[in-house]
Amino acid sequence: MLFTLFAFVILNFCGIAALQACARTIFAFSRDELLPFSNIWIRINKYTQTPLIAVWLNVTLAITINLIGLGSYTAISAIFNVCTIALDWSYCIPIICKMIFSYNTERYRPGPWHLGKFSWLINCWSVVWTFFVSIIFLLPTTRPVTVGTMNYAVVILVGILMFAMMYWYAGGARKKYIGPRSKPRKEEEEAPEFVPSAHKNDEVTKF
Fold first, then answer.
1. Residues annotated as region Disordered (predicted)?
2. Which whole number is the average pLDDT over 140-157?
């Protein structure tokens, strides 16, 4: 009984933290116009000063996805496997970018704390290991493989990638996305533009 109580408390803390992180991610992607209907998810509630619609979208998606587990353990396992793969590669993408651009001293400068000459080796091992475990998460867990024991994570992963590619090219996301923004496009357009004046120490506000 005590263990169940502790587990319930811990799950609540983890759930609240995950809810906050996911809602912030939805808000950030919507601010950068990377999600369908971004103009809806970006809205800030005037009373709470939080992206309330993005929070409830996250809650709805989380409940809907977890309800799948009541009907099919195979399906929910595949979804969890894809989540693990996606999370791991979200770490690896910046590592790969660092490995590619680290040779260009004009575009990349190491921070005050780094691993020196061991950095490239550790980064390389991180990418290789993530690639290896990603394959493991896509494999069936039992043999012989049947319709009920098949790991459908690869199907879900390919579906997500296809949807992302279609939305990027056909949906026009590549025309809207210019990189991370500090504020929504509307606020950027309404904000005054600062341009240098003829005097070195003066600035003129252009409305």
1. 179-207
2. 84
Query: Which among 124, 125, 18, 139 has a CA at the least distance from the CA of 81?
Result: 139
DSSP state of 1: -
- pLDDT tens digits for range 116-128: 788 888 999 999 9
Over the chain, what is the mean pLDDT? 80
Q: What is the pLDDT of residue 125?
A: 92
Counting Cα atoms < 13 Å in the Cβ hemisphere of 151 gives 17
Which pTM was predicted? 0.69
The contacts of residue 149 (CB under 8 Å, 6+ apart) are 74, 140, 141, 142
Question: Which stretches of the chain are DSSP H helices?
Answer: 2-31, 38-41, 52-71, 73-101, 119-138, 153-169, 173-176, 185-190
Q: For residues 153 and 133, what is the distance between their CA atoms, to the nearest angstrom?
A: 13
Q: Which residues pair with 196 in a beta bridge?
A: 203
Task: Please list, in sequence order, all residues whose beta carbon lies within 8 angstroms of the beta carbon of residue 69, skipping any fewer than 6 positions away.
Answer: 75, 76
For 23, residues 6+ apart whose C-beta sits below 8 A from its C-beta are: 51, 54, 55, 57, 58
Reduced 3-state DSSP string for 178-190 = CCCCCCCHHHHHH
